[in-house]
Amino acid sequence: MSYPEYAKVGEKLYKINTDFKVALKCEEVAESDVGEVERALAIIFLLFGEDGLKNPEDYEELVKKAVIFLKCGQEPELESNEKDMDFEQDKSYIKASFYTDYGIKDIYAEEMHWWEFIDLMNGLKDDCVLNRVRNIRSYDTSDIKDGKILRQWMKQKRAVALKDKMREPTAEEQKNMEQFLKAIGEG
Q1: pLDDT one-digit tens code per residue, 140-170
Q2: DSSP code per residue over 104-150
Q3: Are the beta carbons of 3 and 43 closer than 8 angstroms?
Q4: SS3 label, residue 17
């Protein structure tokens, strides 16, 4: 499979910086608190370099091309699921998984096309450390009736929680948890 190296806007071809580490930086910029215009310009610069910044008339199309590139040619979808991974926070899990599944000692020392990186991420085995962590994070505990098992799951979820998801339960959540444990004779 050949991966895109250029983006065409009108008659101009823009070379894309395709390295996955650049795309990861774009993802970081896209999720940052800076203004929309600044984010767009930063992503244009990261992916298309000075060449992209020199042509303000192409900015809108370059942003569209950037989104298509970063989504690996797929239509952007509305994020409806709770986030179960973060490229930055899960760096060590990603590194370990690439080593065990593909024998790549340090994926972050490699230069690799973004789309190839995503293909490899999608091909990681179900039992690799990253996917085990993601499964813990996304596991629905609402049907667990045994208080001991529920506490074990909650402990695991806290241990691998993403930082932005890691928070103390609200007073109401804590009260509900205590009531639930009392109701099943575990509290």
Answers
A1: 998 888 889 999 999 999 999 998 634 455 5
A2: -S-GGGS--BHHHHHHHHHTS-TTSHHHHHHHHHH---TT---HHHH
A3: no
A4: coil
